Hints:
By secondary structure, this protein is an all-alpha fold. Helices cover 84% and strands 0% of the residues. It has helices at 2-28, 31-45, 48-66, 70-102, 113-116, 119-148. Helix 1 (2-28) packs antiparallel against helix 3 (48-66).
Amino acid sequence: MPLVLLAHGVTAGVMVGTAMGVVPMTRAQPYDRYVWTIQFLWPRYDPFMPIVNGLALVLGVTLAATAPGGAARALFALAAALLVVVMAISVLKNVPINRFVMALDPARRPADWAKLDPRARWRAWNLLRTGLHLLALGANLGATGALLAGGS
């Protein structure tokens, strides 16, 4: 339990920090600074976030399968299912946008940048996955609380 809470808590913190700080900063930046910032940050978030989220998922599934008590098991399973959705959003929505930005040249703004600019889409998907991640963390905390209280 402590490891799943640690892994989940760290990644939730990174996601909230991204939503509160990185996203507003990059949305306010001109093209060249935005591209440079993402190209600087993304290699630092990846592979860290996928590895730690994957660890939280594996630990959560293990707890869902082995925890005593129905309520705790159900909450661990809910947290794991929500984390699968978070990871799917990451892989299917946010990562392709990050790859697109990684391929851009900060010194050469595309003529149609106003149409291509992915910041609003990336923000929307990130807010959704951050909210789901926090719900999953809440489910893990609830499951832990149920086990510590001795309830099922």
